[in-house]
Amino acid sequence: MKRKTPILLTGIALTAALAGCAASTSPGNDGHRSDIPKAKVMGKAVNCLPIQSLRESIVRDDWTIDFRTGANTWYRNSLPRRCNGLGFERAFSYATSQTQLCNVDIITVISNTAGPGPINRGSCGLGEFTPVELTK
């Protein structure tokens, strides 16, 4: 005869378990933020940007990264799939043997909040780079 042992969740563990369920099923939690700047398309999307021209990147949410090249030219990269944790961590790395960052490249979400060094939080593919003018 098998004996069943009940699992007892108390205090913090129960709260965390219930919060985890609520967060995952909550409507509207799709990784998009409503406060990202609007972008007016200024030209045709390109597959790659030269790495030496990249001056800044700003993670907007789990789906969107803006890249600045040159003086004030912006490219919006709308990821083809959600990159979980990207909007929260707002940090990523990439590795390429090319002189360009392209829509076939993979980025890795990183967290530097725990431990002695960065922790990889998952990887995602980039989309095309669309030249935009950011509006407020």
Describe the structure.
With 136 residues, the chain is mainly beta. It starts with 10 loop residues before the first helix and ends with a strand. 14% of the residues lie in helices and 38% in strands. The chain has helices spanning 11-25, 86-89, and strands at residues 38-41, 48-50, 54-59, 64-69, 73-78, 92-94, 100-102, 106-111, 119-125, 129-135. Strand 3 and strand 4 (64-69) form a beta hairpin. The longest helix is centred in the first third of the chain and has 15 residues, at 11-25. The strands form 3 sheets. A 5-stranded antiparallel beta sheet has the order 1-10-5-4-3, with no helix packed on it. The radius of gyration is 20 Å and the shape is globular. It has one domain (38-135). The model is unreliable at 1-27 (pLDDT under 50).
Q: What labels describe this entry?
A:
mainly beta; 14% helix; 136 residues; 38% strand; 10 strands; five-stranded antiparallel β-sheet; disordered N terminus; 2 helices; three-stranded antiparallel β-sheet; globular
**Class based on secondary structure composition and strand pairing:** mainly beta
End-to-end distance, in Å? 68 Å
**Fraction in beta strands:** 35-45%
Q: Tell me about the largest β-sheet.
A: 5 strands, antiparallel
In order across it, which strands form the biggest sheet?
A: 1-10-5-4-3
Low-confidence stretches are 1-27
Number of domains: 1
The number of E-state strands comes to 10
SSE map:
Elements: H1 11-25, E1 38-41, E2 48-50, E3 54-59, E4 64-69, E5 73-78, H2 86-89, E6 92-94, E7 100-102, E8 106-111, E9 119-125, E10 129-135
Antiparallel strand pairs: 1-10, 2-7, 3-4, 4-5, 5-10, 6-8, 8-9
